[in-house]
Every structure is written in C-alpha cells, then in structure tokens.
Input
Amino acid sequence: MSMRIELSSLNVYYGSFLAVEDINMVIEPNSITAFIGPSGCGKSTLIRTLNRMHEVIPGAYVKGNLTMNGEDIYSPSVDPVKVRRQVGMVFQRPNPFPTMTIKENVLSGYRLNNNKMSKSDADALAEKALKGANLWNEVKDRLDRPGSSLSGGQQQRLCIARAIAVEPEVILMDEPTSALDPISTAAIEDLAIELKEKFTVVIVTHNMQQASRISDMTAFFTIADTGLPGKLIEYDRTDNIFSNPKEKQTEDYVSGRFG
Amino acid sequence: MSSQAPVVKRRIGDLVFSNLAIGSGVAILVILAAVAIFLFAESVPAFLSEQDAAPDGFFAYVAPFLFGTVLASIIALLIATPLAIGIALYISHFAPRRLSQALGYSIDLLAAIPSVVYGLWGMLVLAPFLNPSYLWLNENFGWIPFFEGPVSATGRTMMTVGIVLAIMILPIMAALIREIFLQTPRLHEEAALALGATRWEVIKMAVLPFGKAGIISSAMLGLGRALGETMAVALVLSGSGVITFALLTSTNPNTIAANIALQFPESSGTYTSLLIATGLVLFAITMAINMLARWVISRRSEFSGAN
Output
C-alpha cells in the first residue's frame, strides 16, 4: 500500500511566525520525492507536517489542506497518533532506543498496537523488517545485543526497519544520511529505491547528488531572508530540476551559484 | 628516530587542578577510613569487656533496631518512589512551563525543612490526623499482619514514621529524577512519537527506560537518608526492642539511629561501645545497599544509552 499526498495552500506556523507559506504540491505514491533547499527554508518543517510531528513543538499549527488518499489528516476527528502509525519517519541522527535490543527496537512500533504476539510471529516480523532494511545478514546472529552496539549506518537501517515493521504507507526521511559515511549512505540510498516499491517515500536532503541519484520528483524550497517564510520555488521531475529548471533561483542553487 | 620520551611541558594551571582533584579524591577515602576506624575501635570493648552491656549478646540487642531501621526505610521508599516518579514526570513532561517551575521551587523548599521540624509535625499533626485511617485499616484489613491490632491511641506508629520519612526523602528524589527525565534525549522521544506512540507510551518507551539507572540511584540516596534519619524517628516513635510487622500498634521497634540518639547521653563504659557498635551495623547496611544499587545499575549498562 502506498499513498497519494496532496498539499493545497498549506501554511505552517510556529505561534505567530509563518515558517512555510502557501505550499501546493502532489506527492505521488510509489515514488521518491526529494525536498532540497538551503538551511532554514522550511523543508524539515514541511516534512514534519506530513506526519504531524511538528505539533510536538508548542504553538505549532498549520492552515490549509493536507490530504492522504483524499483524507484530510488535519481534520479535528483525526488522531495524530493514528497518522503517525501510517506515516513512518527516519531522522537525521540514527535514534534506536538504547535500552532495547536490536529485535525489540524493530518490534517496538508494532508492540504499540498489538501487545499480544506469539514468539514465532515476532521473530518472523523482525526478520521480515530487517530484511526489508537490508540489515538482516549483518545482525541475525546478535538480535539480542543493544541497538547502540551497531555502527551509525547500521543503526540508521535499524531505524528504517523499525519504521517499516508497522507497515506504514508513507516513509519520511529527514536528512537520513547526513551523519553517515559514503558507504553507509550508498546502502541507505539503495534501500530507499527499494522502499518505493511499497511506500511513498519523501526525503529531505542537503546532498544534491543524492536527490538526483534516487528521487523521481524534486521540490526546491528557499527563503528570501531570515524571518521570512520558506516557499516552494519549483517542483518538477528530478531530471528537469537538475538539467532544465524553469526558475532562475533553482538553477542557481542546483548549479552551486546560490546566494 | 629519537628514543627519548617526549618532554611534557608542565603548565602551572594543569598542575594545580590535577593536584586539587587528587586531593579531593584522597580526602573522601581518608574521611571514610577515619569514620570506619573510629567505629571499629570504639565498638571493640563491647565485645571484649567482662561486664556485659547486652546480656543476651550483641546481635540479640541490635536485631530489633536493625529490623526497625530497615522496616521504616522500606515503608518510606515504597511510598516515596512512585510519588517521586509521578511528580518528576508531571514537572518534566506534563505541567505547563510556568507551573512546572513553581513546582520545582516548592520541592526544593520542601527539601530545606530541617528533619526536627518534620519530626515535630509528624508527632503533633500527622499522627493524630492519620489515626482514624489506621482504625479503619485495622477494622477492614486487620487479617493482614501489617494491620494487626490493637491500634495505637496516639497514631505514633511505625506506619507514621514510614510516612514522615517518605515525605522527607521525597523532595530530593523528585528533584533528582526530574533532572534525569529532562535529560531524556529529544531524539528518543521523537523516535517513539514518530512510531505513533501516545504521550504515556513515549514515557514508557523512551523516558522511563532511559531514566532507570537514575531512578535506582536516587532511590538509594533516599534510602540512605531514611536509614540514617534520627530526629524525626526519635520524636514520632517511642520504640522498644521488639520485632513485629504490625505497623499500627503502640509497640514498635526503634531504629538504630534513634536508639543511639536516645540512649547515648545517659550511657557510659561498655554500653557506649555497644551503641557505637550498632552504629557500625548501620554503616555496613547502608554501604551494602549502595553497593547493591551500583551492581543493579551496572548489570545492564550496555543498554543504558550512555554509549
């Protein structure tokens, strides 16, 4: 399962501060959509509105429309907890639970929904999720070791395994490789391409090569100045953004002539 | 290639601070040794003397007090630990910011009340206040050995002592645990949230496991204070040398510390040594509990999140 995400006239506020202004875009299922742009342009804020994680910050709210498969995820009747169970997220720094084993980490999301689970089901699910995250072969003999015993790249794949174990429909990745070495980065990128077979993948990245290597669609955001809201400048197929952008600002940014 | 060791440049600041640090480290050992030697040396006569201070032997003398000490402290810890965790969670994760600050200050204020005041309050206010509930407990749950009758007429019972001690150790425990909860890495809380955890589930998945070692440490600190508390116990309880699990009667075992405080002024000779020997027992018990706590914490240090 995979979802079509539609944002229309979406504004994101922190208190009275407008952080992201008037976003209109459609994110297609079974694709990778990359958000690129300079620091502070609101791309991380925007990706967090897709699973209502920005609400964790007091005073944050959105105006406008955000639907997933036609359903408004900000309708008052929708529980943000339910949204987050459908939309998995991977963070900038790997964050496995340090007090849990590798296996417990993978199952942690699933256990939130279903406490009762036979040992064989749990083992099968852990194996499936770890295989899905290309981590199984590296950890199958030490599932009872702490998650923090893994390398950074392995920890990040463990976090991906944890996210996909609950079978979400969308996977959000907020700069998932910015703390990783090139080899681990390549592993995550390969994995992202595999994940789009099953999920809608949205990735925030500062690495433009990464965006051009793996994404189908790219959205370029920028801000005119500090204190002003971030805006979506151009949203198009990735090859167009990088080889034939329509906007001057996009061209400047992707060719490294920004600022 | 030179075979000489590199010349280390001596900087005066480094030297001063390293010596200060070493000095402080050594001082703690010296103080500990001095106290231990004092306890040992002064208690020896109690065992060697011809004239017997404790007719039935030392252990028969100290056993009820040891029992009373441990019982009162366990009651205190059982009451204070869940309360402290609750207070700490409320302040760190639920209360609006302003309220949580005010609450933080009032907890510090609670910690600043001298123990003799707690003792007076326990004796004059809390004991009579609690007595009706003791009667109720005895009527309805008297079949449980803890709530056996006859219920004390004054309310100055082991249970009251436990509650007073709980209130005394609560502030330091709550303040420490709150500090620990506030240090839960944001990343771990977000990881839980992003998996679709509710607020309570975030606390269960990220906050409590992360704080476990700290909770145990602060409980041990609280326990240490409860074990050694003298004034509050001495004021509330008129204890004797009995061993009983009945918490609501007027016959209660005294604690080691309170017994020393009450008996010491009128003691002499081997009886003084006997009292000091009971102090040695208290010292040993407290140390054993602290070591046990360290061991519990280190057993799962791999999973502590410190790495």
Remarks:
- Chain B has ten helices and no strands.
- Chain B touches chain A through 24 residues (CB under 8 Å).
- The radius of gyration of chain B is 24 Å.
